[in-house]
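A quick word before the example. In earlier lectures we treated sequence and structure as two separate objects. From today on, think of them as two lines of the same record. Here is Peptide chain release factor 1 written that way.
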Amino acid sequence: MDDARYNEALDELDHLMNDPDVPLEPTRVWDLLAEVSHHDIHHAH
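And the structure line, produced from the sequence above:
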């Protein structure tokens, strides 16, 4: 995942979690969290 995709994933996650007009999609939230976590783990070392 490059930095652009990482930022897109964070934006989408923020949108899903904080926009009251958007229905919560738990599967998508977990997928995004997995992507972001994977990116964070690899960039922490």
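Notice the following. Residues 26-44 form the longest helix (19 residues). We will return to this example when we discuss secondary structure assignment.
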